[in-house]
Structure formats: structure tokens, C-alpha cells
Amino acid sequence: MSDRDQKLAIVTGASRGLGAAIAERLGARGYHVVAVARTTGALEELDDRIRAVGGAATLAPMDITQPAAMIQLVQAVLDRWGGCDLWAHAAIHAAPLAPAPHVDPKDMDRSVALNITATHGLSALFDPLLRARNGTALFFDDPRAGQPFFGAYGATKAAQIAFARSWQAENQRLGPRVVIATPNPMPTAVRARFFPGEDRSTLSPCRTEADRILAELAI
């Protein structure tokens, strides 16, 4: 099988949590996974897990807020695979909880840069890759907008999903397909920072949510 016949998934935010679980499950389903995240060590551990289930991955230790790096990634994907079947966007900046007027300006800037600006930039870059294969863009909602102390995270996550819903509505006829999934609460590191002391035994494992979401995608 040539690379251009291989199913390809790009997972942004693939180093941990739901992004890592999605990448693992896609690898087990026969996708070659391009795993994008800033943490090289976590990506290498993910690669080991994907290989253990018979899959294959290309590791891309990059910062998605850097346009030049993302352009380089897209060109490499285009040259080797000619397109992309699935883009799963799990990257997020979760600013520490704080009263709205007291959110650290650096945290707000980073939240806007990663959760909104980078999402827009990636959609522009990945749209041609997805169109080339009639692919799917997958986003993950976390409805925190308006909740106490979630000013930075809630506002920018809501803006990200509003952007995705517009893209989804625009693509109803011609694609690419845009899907917005809402995972059940999971025992992630981000959630542990938001809810310290929570009983994590009641939460749904990331792999369980990954399996459920991919089954609903029917891919």
C-alpha cells in the first residue's frame, strides 16, 4: 500500500488526555496518525502505545500557534499523503481558574492565541487537505462559558466551538464534514486542576470516550 492509499489522521493536542486516546484508537483502526503536540516525551510514549496495537505514527513536536511550523507540516502531509481523512483538534489552553477581572493577561492572551487564533489558522491550512479526501474535522466541546471562575477558558472555548459551528453550517452541502463531539467528564490533568479533590472513580476513562466518539463518527 502506498502512502497515498493509507488512511491519514492528524491529531492536534495528541500528547495526553483525550487527544492521546483518540490517536491511539485511530492507530488501532488502521490510520497513520500524525501526532502534533509540544511535549516530545509524551509523543514518544504515545508512539510506543500506537505501535503496540499494530499502528503507525509520525510525531510532530510543534507549537500550533506558530504559523510557519504549521505550514511546514501541511506541506509535508500534502507531499507524502496528498490529503487528510480526519483532523481531530484536541489542543487547548486551560487557564487557571480566577475571578473574571483578575485573569492573568498572559493567560488570556495564550487562551486567545491557542483556542481561537490557532484554530482559525489550522482550519484554513487543513481545509484543502480534508477536501482532497472528503475528510472530517472533529472538535470537542466543553460548555463552561459563563460559569464562575471560568472566564478565560470558558469564553475562548465557547468561541472556538462557535467558529466550528459556523464552518459546519457552511459545509453542509460540499464538505468537508465538521463534527462537534461533547465528551463526558474524564479524569484528565486539566480537569484535576479545575476540580481538585474530585472523586475521579466516577469519571469516564479517556479511552472509553475516544471509542464512543469514533463509533459515532462511523469511521
Automatic annotation (TrEMBL):
The protein's name in its UniProt record: Oxidoreductase
Gene Ontology cellular-component terms listed: membrane
Gene3D superfamilies attached to this UniProt entry: NAD(P)-binding Rossmann-like Domain (3.40.50.720)
Protein family membership: Belongs to the short-chain dehydrogenases/reductases (SDR) family.
Keyword Oxidoreductase: yes
Keywords assigned by UniProt, alphabetized: Oxidoreductase
Segments forming domain Ketoreductase: 7-190
Protein's UniProt keywords contain Protein biosynthesis: no
Pfam families noted in UniProt: adh_short
Source organism of this protein record: Paracoccus salipaludis
